[in-house]
Amino acid sequence: MASSDGTPTLDRAGARPRALVDPFARAITYLRVSVTDRCDFRCVYCMSEHMTFLPKVDLLSLEELDRLCSAFIAKGVTKLRLTGGEPLVRRGIMTLVSSLSRHLASGALKELTLTTNGSQLEKFSAELKAHGVERINVSLDTLNADKFRDITRWGDLNKVLAGIDAAQAAGLQVKINAVALKGVNEDELASLVEWAHGRGMDLTVIEVMPLGDIEESRLDQYLPLSLVRARLAERYALEDIDYQTGGPARYVRVKETGGRLGFITPMTHNFCESCNRVRITCTGTLFMCLGQEDAADLRTPLRASEGDQLIHSAIDEAIARKPKGHDFIIDRKHQRPAVSRHMSVTGG
Length: 348
Ligand code: SAM
Description:
Layout: E1 30-34, H1 62-74, E2 79-83, H2 93-106, E3 111-116, H3 121-130, E4 135-139, H4 145-152, H5 157-169, E5 173-180, H6 189-198, E6 202-207, H7 218-221, H8 225-235, E7 238-240, E8 250-254, E9 260-264, E10 277-280, E11 285-287, E12 295-297, H9 299-304, H10 309-319, H11 343-346
Parallel strand pairs: 1-2, 1-10, 2-3, 3-4, 4-5, 5-6, 6-9
Antiparallel strand pairs: 7-8, 8-9, 10-11, 11-12
This protein binds S-adenosylmethionine.
S-adenosylmethionine binds next to strand 3, strand 5 and helix 11.
């Protein structure tokens, strides 16, 4: 356990902060923090083209985000992932990474990592590594520059590839995340496997989830990974392995490449029974489940007192309401999103 200054200690009331265990006896040890809802891309399955972003005054400051993260770490969170929006477009983000790294040094945090679209990695990779980040996830759905521009609405693939080069040169372990999109990248997934594995990177494919209103129908995008896996299995020998990163992916080893391939299947195989995660947004809202609307406001207790007791109590109350799981469905009868928030609000 660690206090907000990173030293192992009791909380201000003199009591050891209670570890986080939800009503289904799941220990919550993984926090994802969306540091901004803004992004320099507008991926068609993630955001609508004309998003309204939060006014800057509503955002927690970097110091407040640090305090909130530290409160979770004091309550037993050992893995922290910064996400967004695009985490690397938040101004001053390296100040937060640098200050959070004290929890790595104290041993309270086992891993500090981030999910990024890669566009800013040329600029930030060396600093991330210097602050103790060892592994990052880069989201990349295609290696075709035109398709990349269509998916992201204006992104430059070369910039992302240069970012991945920079990350690897800085010694960061890179995992590629690709959302499987019907009729868009389904014919390219084998080449993504070979490209990623050829560069020593794991690849994880993800099913599209019905989060937020977008211009397209989810039914037109949704590609079940049972199908993707069956197709890849015609081409490669896939061996189940019990490699774990603390996240929801289930991994196989691709015999021909020697690399690892992960499947994240919120739709076809719900993995909620082993959920160890919660998410906070850049306004200090805690979502206990990516796929449910219930949330807890942590900004008010955070700002109400300089001590952490109010935040700890608010976190305890929220974790006591963590639901069993999400109810994602994509079919003709369910044309509305499961939750109204876009993925860019709660982060990946
Ligand atoms: N900007 C960063 C990035 O691109 O990785 C972090 C935020 S982004 C919302 C995190 C991940 O969520 C990305 O891998 C993205 O592809 C994925 N994502 C966004 N919307 C999704 C959806 N509706 N279903 C499944 N994955 C989604």
